[in-house]
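tl;dr need the bound structure. longer version: we got a ligand (adenosine-5'-triphosphate) that a collaborator sent over and nobodys looked at where it sits. i said id run it. heres the input, straight from their email, havent touched it
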Amino acid sequence: MKPPYSNPSTTFRASPTTDSVRKTPSESDAMIKLNGVIKRFSNAAGEFTVLKGVDLKIKRGEFVSIVGKSGSGKSTLLNMITGIDHPSDGQVVVNDMDIYATFTESQRSKWRGRNLGIVFQFFQLLPMLTLLENVMLPMDYVDMYDFDLRPERAMELLKLVGLEKFADKLPVLVSTGQQQLAAIARAMACDPPLLVTDEPTGNLDTRSADTIIQLFETFVSQGKTIVLVTHDPSVTSRTHRNVIISDGELIDETIAKALPQLRHRHMLEFTKLVEERVYQPHETIIPRDQHVDYFFMIRKGEVEVVLQEKKRRPDGSSLAHRVEGKDHIVSRLSENEFFGEMELLRGGKAIANVRVGNKPVEALALPRADFIRVMNESPITAEALGKIVQKRLEAHQIADNRR
Ligand SMILES: Nc1ncnc2c1ncn2[C@@H]1O[C@H](COP(=O)(O)OP(=O)(O)OP(=O)(O)O)[C@@H](O)[C@H]1O
Ligand SMILES: [Mg+2]
Protein backbone atom coordinates (compact mmCIF):
# COMPACT_ATOMS: atom_id res chain seq x y z
CA MET A 1 0.00 0.00 0.00
CA LYS A 2 1.26 3.47 -0.83
CA PRO A 3 1.59 5.93 2.00
CA PRO A 4 -0.51 9.08 1.65
CA TYR A 5 1.15 11.70 -0.47
CA SER A 6 2.52 14.51 1.60
CA ASN A 7 2.80 17.84 -0.11
CA PRO A 8 6.50 18.65 -0.31
CA SER A 9 5.96 22.32 0.35
CA THR A 10 4.42 21.46 3.70
CA THR A 11 6.87 18.69 4.59
CA PHE A 12 9.83 21.01 4.86
CA ARG A 13 9.13 24.03 6.95
CA ALA A 14 11.68 26.48 8.18
CA SER A 15 10.53 26.35 11.78
CA PRO A 16 9.58 23.51 14.09
CA THR A 17 5.93 22.61 14.08
CA THR A 18 3.92 20.25 16.19
CA ASP A 19 3.16 18.31 13.00
CA SER A 20 6.75 17.59 12.15
CA VAL A 21 7.68 16.39 15.62
CA ARG A 22 4.44 14.58 16.40
CA LYS A 23 4.84 11.01 17.62
CA THR A 24 2.49 8.10 17.39
CA PRO A 25 1.80 6.49 20.78
CA SER A 26 3.79 3.37 19.85
CA GLU A 27 6.99 5.31 19.22
CA SER A 28 9.68 5.21 21.88
CA ASP A 29 11.83 8.28 22.49
CA ALA A 30 14.83 6.45 20.99
CA MET A 31 15.44 6.67 17.25
CA ILE A 32 18.47 4.38 17.50
CA LYS A 33 19.40 1.78 20.11
CA LEU A 34 22.51 -0.35 19.86
CA ASN A 35 22.92 -3.07 22.47
CA GLY A 36 26.24 -4.87 22.71
CA VAL A 37 27.03 -4.54 19.03
CA ILE A 38 30.09 -6.51 17.95
CA LYS A 39 31.52 -6.56 14.44
CA ARG A 40 34.30 -8.89 13.40
CA PHE A 41 36.03 -9.02 10.06
CA SER A 42 38.29 -11.75 8.78
CA ASN A 43 41.30 -11.27 6.58
CA ALA A 44 44.40 -13.25 5.69
CA ALA A 45 45.86 -12.62 9.14
CA GLY A 46 42.74 -14.01 10.82
CA GLU A 47 39.72 -12.56 12.53
CA PHE A 48 39.73 -9.10 14.10
CA THR A 49 37.10 -7.21 16.03
CA VAL A 50 36.28 -3.70 14.82
CA LEU A 51 33.30 -2.95 17.12
CA LYS A 52 33.80 -4.37 20.59
CA GLY A 53 30.36 -4.28 22.22
CA VAL A 54 28.89 -0.88 21.43
CA ASP A 55 25.93 0.41 23.46
CA LEU A 56 24.42 3.63 22.15
CA LYS A 57 21.08 5.39 22.37
CA ILE A 58 20.18 8.32 20.15
CA LYS A 59 16.90 10.10 20.83
CA ARG A 60 14.43 11.26 18.23
CA GLY A 61 15.26 14.80 17.13
CA GLU A 62 18.89 14.63 18.24
CA PHE A 63 21.73 15.93 16.07
CA VAL A 64 24.69 13.69 16.92
CA SER A 65 28.23 13.74 15.61
CA ILE A 66 30.54 10.73 15.77
CA VAL A 67 34.28 11.30 15.78
CA GLY A 68 37.34 9.11 16.12
CA LYS A 69 40.68 8.44 14.53
CA SER A 70 40.92 6.85 11.11
CA GLY A 71 40.21 3.13 11.43
CA SER A 72 38.48 3.48 14.82
CA GLY A 73 35.24 2.01 13.42
CA LYS A 74 33.07 5.05 12.58
CA SER A 75 31.93 3.91 9.14
CA THR A 76 31.47 0.36 10.40
CA LEU A 77 29.25 1.73 13.17
CA LEU A 78 27.15 3.69 10.65
CA ASN A 79 26.82 0.57 8.51
CA MET A 80 25.29 -1.23 11.49
CA ILE A 81 22.71 1.56 11.89
CA THR A 82 21.81 1.74 8.21
CA GLY A 83 21.61 -2.01 7.77
CA ILE A 84 24.19 -1.86 4.98
CA ASP A 85 26.29 -4.42 6.86
CA HIS A 86 25.21 -6.71 9.70
CA PRO A 87 26.66 -7.08 13.21
CA SER A 88 28.42 -10.27 14.31
CA ASP A 89 26.54 -9.99 17.59
CA GLY A 90 24.22 -7.63 19.43
CA GLN A 91 21.00 -5.81 18.64
CA VAL A 92 20.26 -2.76 16.48
CA VAL A 93 16.87 -1.07 16.85
CA VAL A 94 16.15 1.82 14.50
CA ASN A 95 12.82 3.67 14.51
CA ASP A 96 11.38 0.91 16.73
CA MET A 97 12.45 -1.90 14.37
CA ASP A 98 14.92 -4.59 15.37
CA ILE A 99 16.39 -4.37 11.88
CA TYR A 100 18.48 -7.55 11.85
CA ALA A 101 16.07 -9.80 13.76
CA THR A 102 12.97 -8.64 11.87
CA PHE A 103 13.91 -8.37 8.20
CA THR A 104 15.40 -10.36 5.38
CA GLU A 105 18.10 -8.58 3.37
CA SER A 106 15.63 -7.36 0.73
CA GLN A 107 13.03 -6.28 3.30
CA ARG A 108 15.77 -4.33 5.07
CA SER A 109 16.68 -2.62 1.85
CA LYS A 110 13.07 -1.45 1.27
CA TRP A 111 12.76 -0.42 4.89
CA ARG A 112 15.95 1.61 4.52
CA GLY A 113 14.51 3.39 1.48
CA ARG A 114 11.52 4.57 3.47
CA ASN A 115 13.09 5.26 6.85
CA LEU A 116 16.62 6.45 6.23
CA GLY A 117 18.39 9.11 4.24
CA ILE A 118 22.05 8.29 3.65
CA VAL A 119 24.74 10.71 2.47
CA PHE A 120 28.38 9.79 1.89
CA GLN A 121 31.49 11.91 1.44
CA PHE A 122 31.55 11.31 -2.31
CA PHE A 123 27.95 12.07 -3.30
CA GLN A 124 27.43 8.96 -5.43
CA LEU A 125 24.98 10.64 -7.77
CA LEU A 126 24.32 8.66 -10.94
CA PRO A 127 26.34 10.51 -13.60
CA MET A 128 23.99 9.81 -16.52
CA LEU A 129 20.93 11.23 -14.74
CA THR A 130 20.06 14.90 -14.18
CA LEU A 131 19.92 16.23 -10.63
CA LEU A 132 16.11 16.04 -10.75
CA GLU A 133 16.17 12.43 -11.91
CA ASN A 134 18.72 11.57 -9.24
CA VAL A 135 16.40 12.97 -6.58
CA MET A 136 13.43 11.00 -7.95
CA LEU A 137 15.31 7.68 -7.85
CA PRO A 138 14.54 6.73 -4.22
CA MET A 139 10.84 7.51 -4.73
CA ASP A 140 10.85 5.07 -7.65
CA TYR A 141 12.76 2.45 -5.66
CA VAL A 142 10.34 2.29 -2.75
CA ASP A 143 7.35 3.30 -4.88
CA MET A 144 6.54 6.30 -2.76
CA TYR A 145 4.29 9.18 -3.92
CA ASP A 146 2.11 9.05 -7.03
CA PHE A 147 4.17 8.68 -10.16
CA ASP A 148 2.95 12.00 -11.61
CA LEU A 149 3.76 13.91 -8.46
CA ARG A 150 7.37 12.73 -8.14
CA PRO A 151 8.93 15.45 -10.38
CA GLU A 152 7.10 18.14 -8.43
CA ARG A 153 8.31 16.78 -5.11
CA ALA A 154 11.87 16.37 -6.41
CA MET A 155 11.80 19.97 -7.60
CA GLU A 156 10.63 21.14 -4.15
CA LEU A 157 13.58 19.34 -2.62
CA LEU A 158 16.01 20.90 -5.08
CA LYS A 159 14.49 24.29 -4.23
CA LEU A 160 15.01 23.60 -0.57
CA VAL A 161 18.73 23.05 -1.15
CA GLY A 162 18.93 26.00 -3.59
CA LEU A 163 19.45 23.98 -6.77
CA GLU A 164 16.19 24.47 -8.69
CA LYS A 165 18.05 26.28 -11.48
CA PHE A 166 20.26 23.23 -12.00
CA ALA A 167 17.52 20.61 -11.97
CA ASP A 168 18.13 19.57 -15.60
CA LYS A 169 21.92 19.52 -15.36
CA LEU A 170 24.06 16.42 -15.11
CA PRO A 171 26.07 16.17 -11.85
CA VAL A 172 29.37 16.79 -13.62
CA LEU A 173 28.20 20.28 -14.62
CA VAL A 174 27.73 21.56 -11.08
CA SER A 175 30.28 22.16 -8.30
CA THR A 176 31.22 19.54 -5.71
CA GLY A 177 29.30 21.49 -3.04
CA GLN A 178 26.22 21.50 -5.28
CA GLN A 179 26.57 17.79 -5.94
CA GLN A 180 26.56 17.18 -2.21
CA LEU A 181 23.45 19.37 -1.83
CA ALA A 182 21.77 17.29 -4.54
CA ALA A 183 22.79 14.11 -2.72
CA ILE A 184 21.15 15.49 0.43
CA ALA A 185 17.97 16.34 -1.51
CA ARG A 186 17.99 12.76 -2.79
CA ALA A 187 18.50 11.38 0.72
CA MET A 188 15.44 13.32 1.92
CA ALA A 189 13.32 12.31 -1.10
CA CYS A 190 11.08 9.93 0.84
CA ASP A 191 10.90 12.22 3.89
CA PRO A 192 12.77 9.83 6.23
CA PRO A 193 12.79 10.57 9.98
CA LEU A 194 16.53 9.75 10.16
CA LEU A 195 19.49 11.01 8.15
CA VAL A 196 22.79 9.14 8.48
CA THR A 197 25.83 10.71 6.92
CA ASP A 198 29.52 9.80 6.68
CA GLU A 199 31.86 12.81 6.39
CA PRO A 200 29.41 14.84 4.28
CA THR A 201 31.63 17.94 4.37
CA GLY A 202 34.96 16.07 4.10
CA ASN A 203 35.42 16.95 0.44
CA LEU A 204 34.07 20.53 0.52
CA ASP A 205 35.33 24.07 1.00
CA THR A 206 34.37 25.88 4.21
CA ARG A 207 31.47 27.81 2.67
CA SER A 208 29.80 24.80 1.07
CA ALA A 209 30.34 22.86 4.30
CA ASP A 210 28.62 25.63 6.24
CA THR A 211 25.63 25.61 3.86
CA ILE A 212 25.26 21.88 4.41
CA ILE A 213 25.42 22.09 8.18
CA GLN A 214 22.81 24.89 8.11
CA LEU A 215 20.57 22.62 6.06
CA PHE A 216 21.02 19.85 8.61
CA GLU A 217 20.13 22.31 11.38
CA THR A 218 16.91 23.12 9.52
CA PHE A 219 16.03 19.41 9.28
CA VAL A 220 16.74 18.96 12.99
CA SER A 221 14.51 21.94 13.82
CA GLN A 222 11.75 20.08 11.96
CA GLY A 223 12.17 17.05 14.20
CA LYS A 224 14.49 14.91 12.06
CA THR A 225 17.26 12.88 13.71
CA ILE A 226 20.74 13.24 12.21
CA VAL A 227 23.80 11.09 12.86
CA LEU A 228 26.93 12.42 11.26
CA VAL A 229 30.50 11.15 11.14
CA THR A 230 33.01 13.96 10.86
CA HIS A 231 36.63 14.95 11.42
CA ASP A 232 35.75 18.65 11.51
CA PRO A 233 35.63 20.36 14.94
CA SER A 234 33.59 23.26 13.48
CA VAL A 235 30.87 20.67 12.74
CA THR A 236 30.98 18.92 16.13
CA SER A 237 30.57 22.27 17.87
CA ARG A 238 27.17 22.62 16.17
CA THR A 239 25.67 19.23 17.05
CA HIS A 240 23.72 18.43 20.22
CA ARG A 241 25.99 15.58 21.18
CA ASN A 242 29.39 14.30 20.22
CA VAL A 243 30.13 10.59 20.48
CA ILE A 244 33.79 9.54 20.38
CA ILE A 245 34.80 6.09 19.24
CA SER A 246 38.26 4.79 20.04
CA ASP A 247 39.45 1.47 18.69
CA GLY A 248 35.91 0.11 18.35
CA GLU A 249 34.66 1.25 21.76
CA LEU A 250 32.65 4.32 22.79
CA ILE A 251 34.10 6.83 25.22
CA ASP A 252 31.94 7.98 28.11
CA GLU A 253 30.52 11.38 27.12
CA THR A 254 30.93 12.89 30.61
CA ILE A 255 34.64 12.04 30.62
CA ALA A 256 35.11 13.46 27.11
CA LYS A 257 33.47 16.75 28.14
CA ALA A 258 35.17 17.01 31.53
CA LEU A 259 38.67 16.34 30.17
CA PRO A 260 38.61 17.32 26.48
CA GLN A 261 42.41 17.59 26.23
CA LEU A 262 42.95 13.91 27.05
CA ARG A 263 43.99 11.54 24.31
CA HIS A 264 41.22 9.21 23.17
CA ARG A 265 43.05 6.17 24.48
CA HIS A 266 43.24 7.76 27.94
CA MET A 267 39.56 8.72 27.79
CA LEU A 268 38.76 5.12 26.96
CA GLU A 269 40.93 3.88 29.82
CA PHE A 270 39.03 6.18 32.20
CA THR A 271 35.73 4.97 30.73
CA LYS A 272 36.63 1.46 31.83
CA LEU A 273 38.08 2.43 35.21
CA VAL A 274 35.47 4.80 36.65
CA GLU A 275 32.87 3.76 39.19
CA GLU A 276 29.40 5.23 38.76
CA ARG A 277 28.09 6.64 42.02
CA VAL A 278 24.86 8.25 43.11
CA TYR A 279 24.78 10.68 46.06
CA GLN A 280 21.68 11.93 47.84
CA PRO A 281 20.77 15.60 48.44
CA HIS A 282 23.11 17.34 50.95
CA GLU A 283 25.32 14.24 51.30
CA THR A 284 29.02 15.00 51.74
CA ILE A 285 31.19 13.59 48.95
CA ILE A 286 34.57 14.91 50.07
CA PRO A 287 34.87 15.84 53.75
CA ARG A 288 37.18 18.71 54.55
CA ASP A 289 40.58 17.83 56.08
CA GLN A 290 40.46 14.22 54.91
CA HIS A 291 42.52 12.44 52.29
CA VAL A 292 41.01 12.37 48.82
CA ASP A 293 41.12 9.02 47.07
CA TYR A 294 39.15 9.74 43.93
CA PHE A 295 38.87 12.21 41.08
CA PHE A 296 35.17 12.98 40.47
CA MET A 297 33.33 14.01 37.31
CA ILE A 298 29.69 15.05 37.52
CA ARG A 299 27.30 13.29 35.18
CA LYS A 300 24.13 14.80 36.57
CA GLY A 301 23.23 17.34 39.26
CA GLU A 302 25.15 19.97 41.16
CA VAL A 303 27.64 20.00 44.03
CA GLU A 304 28.58 22.80 46.41
CA VAL A 305 32.16 23.51 47.42
CA VAL A 306 31.93 24.71 50.99
CA LEU A 307 34.29 26.46 53.36
CA GLN A 308 33.33 27.04 56.95
CA GLU A 309 32.92 30.55 58.32
CA LYS A 310 35.74 31.47 60.71
CA LYS A 311 34.65 32.53 64.16
CA ARG A 312 35.64 36.12 64.82
CA ARG A 313 37.02 37.45 68.07
CA PRO A 314 35.42 40.60 69.42
CA ASP A 315 38.44 42.58 68.10
CA GLY A 316 37.68 41.32 64.57
CA SER A 317 40.61 38.91 64.19
CA SER A 318 39.69 35.39 63.27
CA LEU A 319 40.24 32.21 65.22
CA ALA A 320 42.50 29.63 63.68
CA HIS A 321 40.08 26.76 64.08
CA ARG A 322 36.97 26.64 61.94
CA VAL A 323 34.64 24.37 63.86
CA GLU A 324 31.14 25.52 64.69
CA GLY A 325 31.32 28.26 62.07
CA LYS A 326 28.69 28.93 59.36
CA ASP A 327 28.96 27.37 55.91
CA HIS A 328 30.18 29.48 53.05
CA ILE A 329 29.63 28.18 49.50
CA VAL A 330 32.69 29.09 47.43
CA SER A 331 31.45 27.61 44.18
CA ARG A 332 28.90 25.33 42.58
CA LEU A 333 29.91 22.72 40.04
CA SER A 334 27.54 21.03 37.64
CA GLU A 335 27.36 18.54 34.76
CA ASN A 336 30.67 17.69 33.10
CA GLU A 337 32.71 19.56 35.71
CA PHE A 338 35.11 17.82 38.07
CA PHE A 339 36.45 18.05 41.59
CA GLY A 340 39.03 16.40 43.81
CA GLU A 341 41.82 17.35 41.39
CA MET A 342 43.33 19.98 43.71
CA GLU A 343 44.13 17.53 46.44
CA LEU A 344 45.23 14.80 44.02
CA LEU A 345 47.57 17.11 42.11
CA ARG A 346 48.94 19.05 45.06
CA GLY A 347 48.87 16.29 47.65
CA GLY A 348 47.47 16.79 51.12
CA LYS A 349 44.01 16.81 52.59
CA ALA A 350 40.80 18.34 51.27
CA ILE A 351 40.80 22.09 51.70
CA ALA A 352 37.04 22.35 51.34
CA ASN A 353 33.98 20.28 51.86
CA VAL A 354 32.23 19.07 48.70
CA ARG A 355 28.57 18.21 49.15
CA VAL A 356 25.48 17.55 47.08
CA GLY A 357 22.98 20.35 46.39
CA ASN A 358 19.21 19.91 46.55
CA LYS A 359 18.96 17.11 44.00
CA PRO A 360 20.74 13.75 43.78
CA VAL A 361 24.09 13.74 41.99
CA GLU A 362 25.39 11.10 39.60
CA ALA A 363 29.17 11.14 39.50
CA LEU A 364 32.00 9.11 38.05
CA ALA A 365 34.78 8.34 40.50
CA LEU A 366 38.26 7.55 39.21
CA PRO A 367 40.78 6.01 41.66
CA ARG A 368 43.62 8.30 42.64
CA ALA A 369 46.45 6.11 41.27
CA ASP A 370 44.90 5.95 37.79
CA PHE A 371 44.33 9.69 37.74
CA ILE A 372 47.92 10.46 38.77
CA ARG A 373 49.38 7.97 36.28
CA VAL A 374 47.47 9.41 33.32
CA MET A 375 48.26 12.99 34.34
CA ASN A 376 51.94 12.03 34.26
CA GLU A 377 51.47 10.62 30.76
CA SER A 378 49.40 13.54 29.50
CA PRO A 379 51.21 16.82 30.19
CA ILE A 380 48.67 18.88 28.20
CA THR A 381 45.80 17.77 30.43
CA ALA A 382 47.94 18.16 33.55
CA GLU A 383 48.77 21.73 32.50
CA ALA A 384 45.11 22.57 31.76
CA LEU A 385 44.08 21.13 35.13
CA GLY A 386 46.93 23.01 36.81
CA LYS A 387 45.46 26.27 35.53
CA ILE A 388 42.02 25.35 36.84
CA VAL A 389 43.52 24.46 40.22
CA GLN A 390 45.23 27.86 40.29
CA LYS A 391 41.97 29.67 39.55
CA ARG A 392 40.07 27.66 42.14
CA LEU A 393 42.74 28.33 44.76
CA GLU A 394 42.53 32.05 44.03
CA ALA A 395 38.74 31.89 44.39
CA HIS A 396 39.19 30.14 47.73
CA GLN A 397 41.67 32.73 48.91
CA ILE A 398 39.37 35.59 47.96
CA ALA A 399 36.53 33.83 49.76
CA ASP A 400 38.78 33.16 52.73
CA ASN A 401 39.87 36.79 52.99
CA ARG A 402 36.25 37.97 52.91
CA ARG A 403 35.30 35.76 55.82
N1 LIG B 1 34.63 -4.93 4.89
C1 LIG B 1 35.71 -4.97 5.65
N2 LIG B 1 36.53 -6.05 5.69
C2 LIG B 1 37.62 -6.09 6.48
N3 LIG B 1 37.99 -5.07 7.27
C3 LIG B 1 37.24 -3.97 7.28
C4 LIG B 1 36.07 -3.84 6.48
N4 LIG B 1 35.53 -2.62 6.72
C5 LIG B 1 36.33 -2.02 7.60
N5 LIG B 1 37.35 -2.81 7.96
C6 LIG B 1 38.41 -2.49 8.92
O1 LIG B 1 37.78 -2.07 10.13
C7 LIG B 1 38.48 -1.00 10.74
C8 LIG B 1 37.55 0.18 10.94
O2 LIG B 1 37.18 0.68 9.67
P1 LIG B 1 36.19 1.91 9.47
O3 LIG B 1 36.07 2.10 8.01
O4 LIG B 1 34.95 1.66 10.23
O5 LIG B 1 37.01 3.09 10.14
P2 LIG B 1 36.69 4.66 10.16
O6 LIG B 1 36.68 5.07 11.59
O7 LIG B 1 35.46 4.94 9.37
O8 LIG B 1 37.98 5.27 9.46
P3 LIG B 1 38.12 6.55 8.47
O9 LIG B 1 38.14 7.75 9.35
O10 LIG B 1 39.43 6.31 7.81
O11 LIG B 1 36.96 6.54 7.52
C9 LIG B 1 39.66 -0.73 9.84
O12 LIG B 1 40.77 -1.40 10.35
C10 LIG B 1 39.24 -1.30 8.50
O13 LIG B 1 40.37 -1.68 7.77
MG1 LIG C 1 35.11 5.97 7.59
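gonna send this back to them w/ a short note. The domain at 255-402 is CATH 2.60.120.10 (Jelly Rolls).
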